[in-house]
Amino acid sequence: MQNPSSNVYIEGAIAAGAAVERLANVNSLVDGRLDQLPWRLTAPSLAPRIRAIYANAGSTGPRRSVVVNYDGYCPAGGYLERPFTVPAGVTEVRVELDDVRLPDEVSSSPAFELQVYDATGITLLHSTAVTPSSTPTDVKTVPIAVTPGVEYRVRVACNVSGQARFAVGWLRVRPTATTNGFWSNFVRIDVSHAILNDNLESGYANPRYAAQSPFSHVDLLFSGDRIAFEVLDNAGDYLADRAQPSVFVNGVPIDPPLDTNIGGIAHCIVKMPPSTGMQAVTICAGPQAVSGLPAPVTEPRGSFICAVYVPRYARVEVLPERPSASGETIVLFGDSKLAGFYSASPGRDSIVHLLRAAGHRVICAAVGGDTLFSKTGATLSVAACLPIARKLVRENPTQVIFGMGRNDIKAALFNATDFLTQAGNAADAIHQADTDVQVKFLAFSHETAGTEEPALDTVRAGMRTLAAARSPWCSFLDGAGLWSVAEANNYTTDQVHPNDAGQERKASLILGPGDEYPWSPMQLANLFAWWEPGPGMTGGPMTAVTASGTSPPTVTLSGTATMAGHFRFEVKTAGAGGSASPAAKGRWSFYNGGRSWVQQDVPLTPTVYIAPLGITVNFSSGVYPNNAVYTADVHVGQVPDLSGNVRHLVGVTNQFPPFMLNGINGKPCLGFVPVDFMRLTAINIPAPYALFVVGKLTSQASLRALLGRTAAGSGMEFYSNTATTMAASDGAVTRQVTVDATVARCYGIIVNGASSQIRVDGASTTVSLNNVALTGLGVGADSEAGHGCDGPVASVIVVAGLPSEDECKAIEARARARWATA
């Protein structure tokens, strides 16, 4: 689409009834459309009324003009005004006004003035009087000396010596002397809401920029070698250099971020990578913090995109909102711990951009210093939360991540109980505004020990309860499990806000079940051993072959498989088999939870050796139908120690457990039956120590052990001692807790004398246990009492020493995320 007055092509988007090509201004440092709101914001009560008109302009199509002060009621001294900042290298400008004339219904008018003031609007630097006539005239002031980097104000004064009424086209502030060739022939594209993507805001916070959400952005296709961005940074003095906007070219961030002018406007020129065609360019606003101005002003602090400048010769296409590649639109609602400006480069390392890199559309409504109280007030009700809820769902999100509350607690705006009530109200309001939205409470990540940590712990636990009560449309993300208080220095910039590593962990948690839980047992200070069934476990004996199909001949397996997993052989070509020259052919496959092998067109000779597995398939003589399928499982011979301490869990002859590919929550497990047993011997861990196990029992009716001893006095047994309880016992002392063990649980047994604990999914019961040293550990059985296990076991962790409460919670949070424990 062509702007008739500029002869510049700006393509791709239409919004609010205005074609985007109208946003283009040739060789002007301001948007020249006098009827736009920013021209009236400096002094709204002094601004004249304006209306748009259109006149036929021959082959170029309709031309757009505006009538200024059409009703003749401009207040005395009234004017339109727009601030502008002079780019580096520019030393002289002039003000130009196209097609000045009398409106059709007006026969004469007193003069109006084109004026230039300093940044304060007090000192007049230049004035040109213009008396409109019936003949359209292009008006130009004389060149005006300016200082690079300094702000000025251009003003159209409409009631200087009477009510001036006139029609005009576009206004320009044109550089006329510059040492930088970029500013000799360029096009300015005003960043309005028509082209801002991932934006929840509306209106103008001040005359310099359209209101925009943190990390909202403009997307372009661009053919030039240089592109410039006008950016207002009013947060640099508050956020140091962490409020910078960012530029992406073809999805890759330009490093370093834009160099903004702290407290003012900067024109940042970016040299584009070499290219023979159009390149995708994204200019992304920076993070924001709440206003530092006195009430009732609410203008946030941050970095904001005001305009895009391109060379006149370049071709530009402004792109509309892109659909989410994943189908997910995520709104982040929170404070500085979710806002991203404490990462090294917010445009590259913040939670917002990490989620966008994963294919999601992300809208950031997280602002530093923000509170739920500021959005809802003190009244605890769903109605009080509906205004912010309606705003959050304006862009039809699929998820709202609720990370608000830390500042409410720290500033005592809400106590913990009232905050949780209002957080529940807010979730209900979001659900009322859009029943398709998933609300996810994100618990606060840990900080170094502070006075508010106990209250934050109360809120973390309460958020889990709120989510459970609102399932299935509401869920809980345990951000407290990402790192411990002791580790806060490693994952935060200032002992509170996530650094790059912390941002990555939070983003990974939000990404969900397709991504591994960000916290790892490797972070435990005294990790002794860690076992979780998965790919690469050493194989043990194989089960008998199970056959299906129409009268399938007998097939057996011989040898010992090199790894545990699931073997399958499928006949693909029917015919005689089990002979030297068989007509029948088939395909074998093996899956071990992480990788699989498939070999097609294997002739069904009497024996087929499967080299990668070290086993032989024996085919009896017969006719094989093409629907015959043979399967067998390879039991687990050894589970590797993931801690790196080489303390592998080994099976006992004739007691190797099966490998369950789809165990707890679809994850691999050891599928114990009561005769199976795995163990670790030749160890010696004095108390205090801790054992954690994720598993479940098929039935509690019999005595069944998840963990046990390998010899008399070797440590602890953890077993179902009644149909409703699980107990820890060293043979002399038995302590029990009531629990339904037939659902997946994360259990913790902390052996520490009178301060011992039995933990069930984070709920701790203090018990007294003897400080028996751990000299052997059985998994799936207790060799002394003869108790076996009849259910899956997903994870076992041994800690040599006393784990902190944070470490225990991290283990339990990971279990909830990975195995859906309670």
Give an account of the 3D structure:
- The protein has 822 residues and is mainly β.
- Helix content is 13%, strand content 37%.
- The strands form 13 sheets. Strands 35, 36, 38, 40, 41, 45, 46, 49, 51, 52, 53, 54 and 58 form a 13-stranded antiparallel beta sheet that branches. Strands 34, 47, 48, 50, 55, 56, 57 and 61 form an eight-stranded antiparallel beta sheet that branches. The protein has a seven-stranded mixed beta sheet with strand order 1-2-28-20-25-22-23.
- Helix 5 packs across helix 12 and helix 7 packs across helix 9.
Features:
13-stranded antiparallel beta sheet; 37% strand; eight-stranded antiparallel beta sheet; mainly beta; 822 residues
Layout of helices and strands:
Blueprint: E1 2-3, E2 8-11, E3 14-15, E4 18-19, E5 24-26, H1 38-41, E6 50-56, E7 62-68, E8 79-85, E9 90-100, E10 112-118, E11 124-130, E12 137-140, E13 144-145, E14 151-157, E15 166-168, E16 171-178, E17 186-190, E18 204-206, E19 209-210, E20 217-222, E21 226-233, H2 236-239, E22 246-249, E23 252-253, E24 265-271, E25 279-284, E26 288-289, E27 301-311, E28 316-318, E29 329-334, H3 336-339, H4 346-349, H5 351-357, E30 361-364, H6 372-376, H7 382-392, E31 399-403, H8 406-410, H9 416-433, E32 438-442, H10 453-469, E33 474-477, H11 488-491, H12 500-511, E34 527-531, E35 538-542, E36 546-548, E37 555-559, E38 565-573, E39 575-577, E40 585-591, E41 596-603, E42 607-610, E43 615-619, E44 622-624, E45 629-639, E46 649-651, E47 659-660, E48 669-671, E49 678-680, E50 689-695, E51 705-708, E52 717-722, E53 725-729, E54 734-738, E55 745-751, E56 756-760, E57 763-767, E58 777-779, E59 781-782, E60 787-788, E61 792-799, H13 805-819
Parallel strand pairs: 2-28, 29-30, 29-31, 31-32, 32-33
Antiparallel strand pairs: 1-2, 3-4, 5-17, 6-7, 7-15, 8-14, 9-12, 9-13, 9-16, 10-11, 10-14, 17-27, 18-19, 20-25, 20-28, 21-24, 21-27, 22-23, 22-25, 26-27, 34-61, 35-45, 36-45, 37-43, 38-40, 38-45, 39-44, 40-41, 42-43, 45-46, 46-49, 47-48, 48-61, 49-58, 50-55, 50-61, 51-52, 51-58, 52-53, 53-54, ...
